[in-house]
């Protein structure tokens, strides 16, 4: 009876905290409506940032899934919570100063970071440090909402271009196809292809990174294994794109030239995304199995 009463009190207290936090999110979203509206428009109009509008939904789902652990112990943390929120407000003010560069998407990036800091401060204020620490992954996951400044996005795209070109070149050599390379231009018998920015496949690379990051968090328990999975996801982003370019080129040479501009070229990115996941799957399953065996061994002891 006592336990049931205590449990009821915890649920009621958390319900009030949930309502307070929801009100905080609504009020802050209205206060910074212009920033959030610009962020949504940017996400809808840029392939490299189409994931942004999904990030808060995924983070909310993660918090809901892990709610028994996150909200097991909650208490207000007024000082640290307000302090973190004020840091966000100060950063937002700095981003809007005329002396700060407004080109290259820096302003939107900093304003988004400022809003996230305010939301994190509101979470800390309503639920306390223990819940804040328990919800560290979903809260940090929200950082993927921040659009990359143009200079960083261009460097990432360039790295994907260079890596994809190198992988494609190696594949041609491995299968015995004569090839010469000049920067991002690859010449094979009958055709010369350019690994342009549009061929960097940054959208599917981000999707692969996010998918592997979530899988590592949900199914792995060892820190270094999570890190390895994320690193492998980054490497596979380049490898699968090189495989895609080489496959389309070889099909255009030996089957039909239309493969370089056909449906597989335009819409086949998802197939190679699945290929990357299949390549990673055996390693991931081994890591998950070894984690379960280690936990079972500890429980037996």
Offer a concise description of the structure.
The chain is mostly helical. The chain contains 13 helices and 3 strands, in the order αααααααααβββαααα.
Could you explain the architecture of this structure?
By secondary structure, the protein is mainly α. It has 2 domains: 2-146, no CATH class; 152-300, no CATH class. Helix content is 74%, strand content 4%. The protein has 13 helices and 3 strands, in the order αααααααααβββαααα. It has helices spanning 2-31, 33-45, 55-65, 67-70, 78-95, 106-127, 129-134, 136-141, 150-174, 202-219, 223-254, 263-267, 269-300; strands at residues 180-182, 185-188, 191-194. The chain has a 3-stranded antiparallel beta sheet with strand order 1-2-3, with helices on one face. β1 (180-182) and β2 form a beta hairpin. α1 (2-31) runs antiparallel to α6, α5 (78-95) runs antiparallel to α6 (106-127) and α11 (223-254) packs antiparallel against α13. The radius of gyration is 24 Å and the shape is globular. The model has no long low-confidence stretch (mean pLDDT 88).
Structural features:
301 residues; 2 domains; 3 strands
Mean pLDDT across every amino acid position = 88
Uncertain spans, ≥5 residues at pLDDT below 50?
none
Instruction: Please give the order of strands in the largest beta sheet.
Output: 1-2-3
Oligomer: single chain
Helix content: over 70%
What Rg, in angstroms, do the CA atoms define? 24 Å
How do the SSEs run, as a string of H and E? HHHHHHHHHEEEHHHH
Tell me about the biggest sheet?
3 strands, antiparallel
Q: What form results from the Cα inertia axes?
A: globular
* CA(first)-CA(last) distance: 34 Å
What is the strand tally?
3
Structural class: mainly alpha
Strand content: under 5%
Number of domains: 2
